[in-house]
Amino acid sequence: MSQSSQTVRPDPGSRSRPPARGRRTSTGVFAGIRVGSIGGVEISLDYSWFIIFFLILGTFAGVVFPAQAPGVDRFGYLLMGFIGAALFFISLLLHELAHAFMAIRRGIGVEGITLFIFGGMARTERDASTPGDEFIIAVVGPLASLALAALFYGIAWAGSAGGAPLAVTVVAEYLGFLNLLLVIFNMLPGFPLDGGRILRAGLWKATGSMRKGTGIATGIGRGLGWGLIGLGLFSLLVGGALIGGLWLVFIGWFLGHAARASYQQVLLQEMLAPLTAGRTMTPNPETVPPDLPLEELVQSYFLQRPFNSFPVTEDGVPLGMVTLGQIKAMPRSEWAGKVTADVMTPMERVVVVDPDTPMIDVIRKMQRAEVRRALVARDWELLGIISNTDLARWIERMTLVEEDRA
Ligand SMILES: [Zn+2]
User: Which of 370, 373, 322 is nearest to 346 (CA)?
Assistant: First the structure.
């Protein structure tokens, strides 16, 4: 979910960014354990997936199938549960693959698919740039689930007509039901669910404004989130459904959170769209030479100036960057005999951009490298520096102008 065009497509919960933790991909989304790739799309499992897999396996083998197919032994229920849970996750994966392959067909790169606690999520490199693309990429997911529902119901029907064992037809029928449930849930019109994406595409087309469409669709998404939380609390407190109730509360929280984050991201992207690195940077930053002793670097620069970092240059050519954090990381007793070049981040690990680079791309590069500053240079000549502070100042200024216009 955040930053520039990092769209993630979680389902059935949402397509927004899940809480980032563990290893981060370029989109800041947790990538999980890689299990393989299909058609060039990487498939990963988030750690939370294992919790949900065993929860579903347990529910299938312990509750659902014993009720629907009486007379099978315990091992049989376990086998049915395992096959049912595996087919359910394959169904989720096919839903996400439908989104991913359609995005690729429309020229939008896909970084991979992650299955996590609320379902699946296809991570695309950017959002669709037209309402038509948005619509078609969103609609193929529920269509895939609908086709799967028809397939499983078909198998159940043919199975019972042909005298197949009850164990087989019950599993098939239940998967048909679950896929149908996925279609219904995902078609709810709140962004970032598929239905919300379709609604946004329609409003975007009708009003010509992606932001208006997103505002309405994410507003409904937040409302749905609160509705699910309310429903969850009701079934928890009144109905006594502990797991089901908590589940709804979590999905509702996740959906509302994702809707809000998605809208903020669209606003940010829109604000940043006209900005380039050259316009955002602090020009002609003060620099330090590579052979400057550390003691002097601290006394004459960090303690005299309001900056937390300095580009290191020699004859105007940038060699690296030194930050206050790097100095702090070294005990004072070790400063003697050390120079700036000994502690600085060398050029190959510094994000360097051309002044014409759009700010959206600069932010993406900074996030990918997990740094908070970038240098702006052309033909090895240092022109400026961009820090989080510069960016925050621009965003604040643009927000003020926005409010004046509104
Ligand atoms: Zn979907």
Answer: 322
Q: Are residues 128 and 268 in the same domain?
A: yes
* Catalytic site includes residue 96: yes
Question: Does residue 151 belong to any structural domain of this protein?
Answer: yes
Over residues 240-280, the pLDDT tens digits come to 877 778 888 988 998 899 898 888 888 887 778 788 888 88
Same domain, residue pair 164 and 15 = yes
Considering the entire predicted model, what is its pTM? Answer: 0.71
Which residue range(s) make up the domain with 267?
Answer: 7-272
Q: How far is the CA of 141 from the centre of ligand 1 (A)?
A: 4
Same domain, 389 and 241: no
Name the DSSP class of 284: S
* Candidate list 96, 111, 134, 173, residue with the active-site label: 96
Give burial (CB, 10 Å; 0-12/13-18/19+) of 225. Answer: buried
Residue 17's pLDDT is 35
pLDDT band at residue 133, thresholds of 50, 70 and 90? very high
Pairwise CA distance, residues 195 & 175, whole Å: 21
CA of 332 to the centre of ligand 1 (A): 55
Residue 237, domain member (yes or no): yes
Residues 302 and 388 in one domain: yes
**317-363 pLDDT, tens per residue?**
888 999 888 888 888 888 888 899 988 988 888 889 999 988 888 88
pLDDT tens for 36-75 read 888 888 898 888 888 888 888 888 888 888 888 888 888 8
Say if residue 292 is in the same domain as residue 266: no
Ligand 1: distance of its center to the CA of 349 in Å? 37
φ, ψ dihedrals at 11, nearest 5°: -140, 150
Q: Ligand 1 centre from 37 Cα, in Å?
A: 19
